[in-house]
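Q&A log
Question type: sequence-to-structure
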Amino acid sequence: MRWVDGTVTVEDSVASSTSLGGDLLRTTFLPSITTVTLGLIRLRDRSLCLGPIRLITFGPPKMSSTSVSWPIDGGLLVGSAGGRFTIESAGGELRAKLDGYQPMLPRRIYEATQLRLHHGLVRVQLLRLAGLPPQKVQPALASRVAAAAIDAAVCAGIALVFARRHRVRAFTGIAIGYHIACWTTSGRTLGGRLVGQRVVSIDGSRLSLLQSALRLAALPLSALRRYPAHDDIAATTVVEDSPV
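Response status: OK
Response body:
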C-alpha cells in the first residue's frame, strides 16, 4: 500500500491458469462481492451497497482485451471522487489495482480496518476467477467426516470442562475460535492432523483470517445444498497431508 497526499494505491495479485478478457472481468468481478460476503454487500447501479448505504460508487467502465477499469465517483467510504479500480489478466497473473483512491477514513483507521478487508475480499475474488486446478489429492469423504467428528468432540470437551452454564453457547464460541485459529495458522485442526489433511487456498497458500471466517460462515450452505459451497465461496480446498 502506498499513501501519497491522502490518496491510496493498493495492489493484489494471484497466479492464473487462464487468460480472461476485459468484458468477462467486467461482468464477473464486481458482482462476485455478493457471493464472497454471503449477500451482505451487493452491487446495485455500479455501487457497492450495504443495505441502502452506497459504500463506493463507480463510473462507466473502460475495457481493453485483457482488463477493465472503473473510475471512483463517490460513496460513503470515499473522501473525494477520483482514482480508479482496475482488474487485469496478463502474464499468468490476475491483478487488481486501486490507484488514486481517497478514503474517507483517517490513515491509521483505514489501514487497520478498510484496507485489511479490501485485501481479504479482493484476494478471495481473484482466486475464485483465476481458474486454478485443485491442489494435490483431496481426502475421501469418510476422512473429512472423521476429522470433523474429532474436532467437534474436542470443542465439546473444552466446553464441558470450562463452561458451567450455557454450554451450548460456549461450545459455539469455542468451535468458531478453534477452527478460525487452526485454519489461519497452519490449515490443520487436531482432527485434520490425526487423519492427515489440511485446508489451503486453491493456489496452495495459507488461508487468510477472512478466508477462514468466510469458510466457517458458509458451512451451513454446504449442508443445505449438499456440495462444498464453503470451499467454493472462500476459494479453499482440503488436501491430503502427512499425519502426526
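Response note: The CA atoms of residues 153 and 191 lie 9 Å apart.
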